[in-house]
Amino acid sequence: MKQLLITDDDYNSRALLGHYMTKEGFRVLEAQNGREAMQVLESQAVDLVIMDIMMPEVDGLALCEYTRKNYDIPIIILSARDQLSDKEQGYLSGTDDYVTKPFELPELLFRVKALFRRYSFASSDKIRLNRLVIDRKNYEVVNGDEVLLLPLKEFELLAQLAEYPGRVFSRDELIYLIWGSDYGGDERTVDVHIKRLRQRFDGGFRIHTIRGIGYKLEVLEQ
């Protein structure tokens, strides 16, 4: 189930939108200002953010910039500001869509679904483990602002395990998938690479040893 974060300092607006999106099959989280939204993003797996601009403490434009910088998720700004310059500022801050108030709830739903389709297509080569993004196309791992370039076999091993979280892979299976059927070494190579991955990463996921069999990756709750 997709999880939406609705950020608006107006309780009635949050309640109306939250009730509608819940009926449409989404799980809804709420925040009443940008600072609170940042805390939710850090502690929850959010799939899309809907935010107002005019909010106390941290406004919507600052929240939009923060979200775009730290999370690869869709963003929709809802605002009563309907001037072209206001929309320009919203898009420059990183929003994917800008919806002016008042709006029809079904139209907003269409936009949410369209963004999910767009992101699903664009992210087909990406695996997400909370804030960690494994980009199989560019062979890099992104952790917030940090881009990690792993040795090729370590990257391929991590991507293989992360693509199927919870599934147990035997050492022989991993040798075949990562090193190939003609590999002349032994299965201890897998153990060495797993050890290196554990040393590199201490959050977002855990690689478990399944005694006598192999390994599986578990995505940690945030």
What this model shows, in words?
The protein has 222 residues and is α/β, with parallel strands linked by helices. It has two domains: 3-122, Rossmann fold (3-Layer(aba) Sandwich), CATH 3.40.50.2300; 126-219, Arc Repressor Mutant, subunit A, CATH 1.10.10. Helix content is 43%, strand content 24%. It is built from eight helices and twelve strands. It has helices spanning 11-23, 34-43, 60-70, 84-92, 105-122, 152-163, 171-179, 188-200; strands spanning 3-7, 27-31, 48-52, 75-79, 97-100, 126-129, 132-135, 140-143, 146-148, 169-170, 205-210, 214-219. The protein has a five-stranded parallel sheet, with helices on both faces. A hairpin with a 3-residue loop joins strand 11 (205-210) and strand 12. Helix 6 (152-163) packs across helix 8 (188-200). The longest helix has 18 residues, at 105-122. The two termini are 16 Å apart. The mean pLDDT is 89.
